[in-house]
Structure formats: C-alpha cells, structure tokens
## 1
Amino acid sequence: MSFEEILNFVNSQVWGWPMLGLLLLTGLYLTFGLRLLSVVRIPYAFKQLFKKRTGNEDEGDVSPFAALMTALSSTIGTGNIAGVAAAIAIGGPGAVFWMWMTAIVGTATKFSEGVLAVRFREIDKNGNRQGGPMYYIKNGLGPKWKWLAYTFAFFGFFAALGTGASIQSNSVADALRSTYGLSPWITAVFIAGGAAAVIIGGIKRIGVVASSVVPIMAGLYLLAGITVIIMHANAIPEAFGRIFAGAFGLQTAGTGISVGLLVLAMQKGVARGIFSNEAGQGSAPIAHAAARNNDPVNQGIIAMLGTIIDTLIVCTITALVILTSGVIPTECIASPENLQTLMTGLQPPGCDTGAPLTASAFDASLFGWGGHIVAIGLTVFAFTTILGWSYYGERCSAFLFTEKSIPIYRILWILVVFSSAAAIALQDQVGNIVNLFWLMADTLTGLMAAPNLIGIILLSPIVFKLAKEYFDKDKTARDGLIDQEDLP
C-alpha cells in the first residue's frame, strides 16, 4: 500500500460520519442554544467591527479589527480559490451547498470560540495575551481535562505546518509555474524570505500586514468574480439548480438518488468548508484572544463575521464563477459512472482541479486575464495565510514546550514553507503532489477540530450565559434604563 493510499484511508476515517456529525450537530446545537443570535445579529456584528474605540480601556495586543483580519488572513487563501474548485471537481456542485451549511452553523461555532478565547485567555511573561482552545479547555474545564488541551496543541502544532505552511506555499508555486513558468525554486526563496521578515515581529506585525493587505485583495478578487458572474447571469439559475440537486445525490437527469454522490458531496463540502472558514477548527480563537477587547461576547460577535465573509461571500463567488462559466466538461462532473474514481480523491484523467480549474473559469470570460487574477490572488491570499497560521502554530508550540520554543518553531516554519514550494519542481517525477498536500491538510484539519469541538460543547453553558447577559444589558440600554456609554 502506497503512502497516498494510506493517507486516503486515514482521511476517509477522519472525515467519516462521526466527524461530519460532530461538526454539524455542534453548530446546530450552538445556533439554537444562542437563539439564532449568530444569524439575526449579523448587522449588529458589522456595526461593532467598525465601532470607534479608544483602545485605552481594553487590554490586548491588536485591535478587534486587526484580530479579525489576522483570522481572515489565515482563512481567505487557497481554500477560497483552489479549495472550492477541488470541492466542486471531486464532490460535484452539491459540495457548495454543504459548504454553505457548514458556514451557517459555523457562525455560532465561531462566535463561541471568540467568546471563550477572550474569557479564558492568559498573559505570558512578556505581557502578551495568549489564548485559544488549549487555554479555554485548560482554564475552563479544569486540570482533569488538561490532556484534551495538550491533544489540541499537539495536532495544532502539526496542522499549522501542513495547512498553513505546506499547502499554501505549494499551491502558490504551482500557480506561478502554471501561469508564468516561474521556477518553484525562485518562488520558494521569495515566499519563505517574505514570511520570515513578517513573522519575526509576532502578532503585532502580522496584524498590521493583514489589516492592510486582506481587505484590498479580497475586494479586488470579489470585483473580478462578480464581473464574470454578471457576464453569465443567464446561467445563474442553472448553477443553483445543480448545487441543490447535487447536494442530495440527485443524478444529472434527475431520475434517481445516488447515496454515494450525496455522501461525496457532503464530505468534500464540509471538509473544504471548514478548511476555508476554520469554524470549529480552533485556529481563529488564537488570534481573537490577542484582541484589545475586554468583553468576550463583543469579540465573539466580531469573530463570527469571519465565516460570513470567507465562505458565504468569497467562496460563493468562486463557486458561481466556475459553475456559470461552463468550463467543466460533462465527463468531469460527479456521476455514478466516475464515483469510484472520485471516492479516491482523484479526478478522471484530463479533468482540471484546484487553482487551474478556477483560472480556466476566469479565463473563459476575462479574455486571458483569468490566470493572472487567480495567480496573483492566490499568491497574496496564501502569503497572508502563511502569516496567520505561523502565529497559531507558535502558540501551540509555546503551550507544549514553553515560550523558548518559539524561535525554533519559526525556523522550522520557514524551512517547511521553502521546501513545500520547491517540491513542485519534482511533481513531474513523483506524481500529483498538489493532491497529496490537500489530503494531508484535510486530515490534519479534522484531527485538530475534534478536541476543540468537545471543549466548546462542554463550555457552551458559559457561552449561553455570557451572551444572554450581554444582550439583556443592550436591551436595557435601548429601553432607556441605563446610559448607552455603559455598554461594552
């Protein structure tokens, strides 16, 4: 049995029904436990994001906006460009529906993560705020649950190297080689050097870079995507029809239901959804714990916007660009005939997946500019993802091995970024490296999510209590019983 076959088997076990159920049921439980707060309070959340703050009364290392941008820098990346394409190529258009479902229930999960991150954060020896699942499990559940905190930190340590360093740099090198013929070795040098220059400054420098780059690049990518969708507006109804039909395993002709196609769409949709927005994965709360915000619920409200922006907006634009452009051949669409091939995580021969598929979709409408949009967007998004995940990884390293391990982890991080980008140069000799990297990232993501979700469920009564107190106070202020200035 080859390494890829072993990895495929492990991936199928990690992303089997137990994990899918844990993710979706946790999100549903939190959504209703919060009385749909994560859905009906979205306008309020955007208002809080741009609320003017003096920053003097709140403790933390970065502004709430910078914390969200740091979290988004790690989510708006290859998952939005290459990940969505891979989900559609392997799971079929129906995978998009399950990405949406993961995002909708994921807003409640993200809210809970943000609340717990600020509520149970600590201050290290250097005076910096540190938090995340390992801290709210340890401080919220007590000593007997310390093993679960260390389990998360262990998986987070390696997941950061796989999801944040390896897959990002690998995808950039692949995209730049395909579009511009740039040597992966050159890409490896520049992307590793750029990352080293930023991450050495820690969360504050990462926050500054993320706050500047993420909004601009995301806006430009969305503008290009919306332009393509408008050009193919007549194909939008059909695209949505394929998404909803595929989500429930309906065959192309609508003559029956394929359980295999339904399971495949759900698996790939949920896996790519959580890879993209990281709801329940436990990475984002590490960034939100550093926010200059003393109110856990207020930061949780801001945290949940990450899922809205990442999946329901950016990923949906990418999906509609692909589905309305008509670039996927009939033989490449998920069907009972090619189900066995797709279940292995591979596309039939001659079918594009990942970033090349997204580039083809843009190219079909923007007269050859699609490849440039995807290559540049992927490069910038992936670079910011590398920065965000480097912080997550070093916090897990510090939890496991103390603060003294951070310099060593940063060196390891840069080496993985460099080697993963350079590995594209060997792809022709050793096979489909890109697909192998995606399999590794998917697997590590699932392993990281499990202990975090268990911790959130056990601590959910605290989340519900804090949320109720916060909005009861907000209602009292609106009724004129207290001054608005007394609100968080």
## 2
Amino acid sequence: MSDSGASLKQSFLGALQASLSVLLTLGYGVLSAKLRLVHPRSVGDVSRLCVDVFLPALLITSIGRQLTLEGVGNYAPFIVWGIVYTFTSIALGALGKKVMNLPDWIVPAVAFNNTTSLPLLLMQSLAATGILKGISGGGQRDAVERAKSYFLINSMVSNTLMFALGPKLMDKNESESANGRDAEAQRDQDSDENASLLPALVRIRVHSVQSSAHRQFTKLPTRAQSTLSFAGDMVNPPLVGAIVAAFIGLVPSLHKSFFADMEDGGVCRAWLTSSISNIGDLFTALQMFVVGSRLCDSLDPEQEIGEIPKRGVAFVWGVRFLFCPAVAIPAVYCLARNNLLGEDPVLWFSMMLMPVGPSAMMMSSLVEMNGNSPKDKMAVARFLTMSYAISPIICFVVVVSLKASEMAVRG
C-alpha cells in the first residue's frame, strides 16, 4: 500500500475511533439513566451547572491562555465564520420548513448544531489517536489547546445567537411564550424566596427593587423594550466567561499573572488559574454524559411520541452532515490557500468542522420554552437521540477536513 493510502487509512481509523469515543461517552449517560443511577432532576441540575459554571471556567482558562494582543487577529475569521454559517443555516431551515410544511422545531434543529461538548471531546480523542501530526506544527497538545480555544469562541457565538434567536424561530405566539416565561420566572422566584436563608427585610427589599425595575421597564417605548429584551437574551454565563477570558488575555500584566511560570511572574497560576482549570476540565466529558442521561427517556417504548416526519429528519441531517461540510471545506480551503485566514492549519481544520454535527441539545429547552405539547417534546428528544446515534459518520468529514488542511499547508 502506498504511503498516501496508508496515511488515509490511519486518518480514517483514528477519526472513527475518536467518534466512537464520543458516542460511548454518550452511551454511558444513557446506561446510567436506565439503571436509575441518576435522577432526572439531578441531571437537569448538573446540566445547568455545566453551562453556568464549568463552561465559563473552561472559557477563561482556554481562551485566556491562547488570546494575546499579538494573536488577537487570529480569532476574527472564525467569529465572522460562526455568524455567517449560523444565519445561513437559519435561512435554510426556514426555507425547508415552509416548502415541506415541517414542524416548527425544524428551524432551530437546522440552525444550531452542537458546538461545545461534542467537538471538544472529539478533539481530545483525535489527539489520543495521533492523527493531528500533519497540521499541529509542533506538539499535538498545543494544537489541541488551540483548537479548543477556537471551538469555545465559536460556541460562545453560537450559544449567544441560540439564546437570543432560538425562541423567536419557533412559530408560536410570542406573547404566549413571554407569558409562559414570566410565569415560570415567577414560580422560580417564589421557590427561591420560600427557600431563601436571607433575612425577611432583605428579601422584601430585593422584591421591591425588582418590582420597581419592572414598572420602569414597562414605561419604556415598545421598540426600546424589544431592544433591551433582545440584549438581555444575549447575555449568558458563557458570554460572560468569554469576556473575562478576553480581558485577562489582552491585558499583558494579567496574562502573565494567570498563565506564566512562577519564576516569570505567574503569581496566580499555581492556585487561582489551577483551580479554575480544575472545574473547567469537568465540562467536556460530563456534559456529554448528561446529554446521554437526558436522552434516555426517548428510548422508552411506552412513551407517547408526536410525529417525527421522515422528510424533516432527512432534511436536517442532509444540511448538518452533508450540505455544511460540502460548502465549508472547499470555502475554507480556498480562503486558506489565498492567505486570508492566517497561517495556523489548526484554525482551518477547526473552521471546516464547526458547522458540522448533530443538532444542539438546547433544542429540548427551546421546545419547552415555546410551550409545545408533551408529545412534541418527546418527538424532539427522540430525534436528538437518533441524531447523536449517527454522529460517528462525522469521521468522514474529519478525514476530508484533515487532508484539505494538509494540502493547504503544502500550498
């Protein structure tokens, strides 16, 4: 067998092993839920903990370490890329829903893919197989760290757009959704107050401030209310984590304090940075485990499930696994060959993979917020289960992206 053929076979086997590793991690979550080792409410709490605490911590350490004043320009291309492919996917989803008369959840299913836990775990597995040598430009560990920072920034962009636009993409009465969210928020507030350890006077004062702020908000013009609501939807813990990471990375004195060796001035590295890194490292595998646990109920044959149109499933999978890589890989390759994306092949490889993969797990939350029926919610859960079950086919995209990046390096 020729060297190129052997290299292709090795790349394919490595990508397949990495994809299976991701699927097995997901399966461990399903198995644990089946054996009742985890409770549904506990799974929800851990999932929220992953997004609100572990992911921001991972963003701070990964992005902050890679982001410097000298290299800040490297991040611009894939921030723009993330926005472009997301809005393109939204347009495709809206068009497909209208033409084929598909359920309302099809649009966000097409628009938003898993941009966090799956690609991060995939990169870790790819590093273990050793197939990133051709584009690492040095040690594979450093290449994986760069790829993680790229995927995390893309995740921040995707999650921000998902939280802001996702509920609006569902074809329901917006005021009903808003009322549902207000009612849910009120129940959460009541629950928090009932369980609060704060003194009664403090709770009363907090409630008074909240009520006053709400009254002032309702006095604003409708356009101003809509603008502020949209801005509020975009603010979320991962975005805050990314902002903190950028601040630490771009301020030279802070970057040195957090990430330099002790003898070079890294006074925070051994204690503060290390502690943040410890909880950030919990995110990747734990989030995929939680995803598997949440998908477990959809495998119950006794559950009543709404219609899952075959043409809708085929449409989503066609966009996510075929159309996106068919467009992304040649586009990024051409940009890289024309020296428009810098000189980091790991960046090119990451950009080729970013639009590819199954729909985001946030889909289930969007359906919940939209007030769909229990059957629709279970249909979405079953659809997500099937999507993640076939996710190992991404290994073909990994191989093609890897070879395209290597070709771009050789010029």
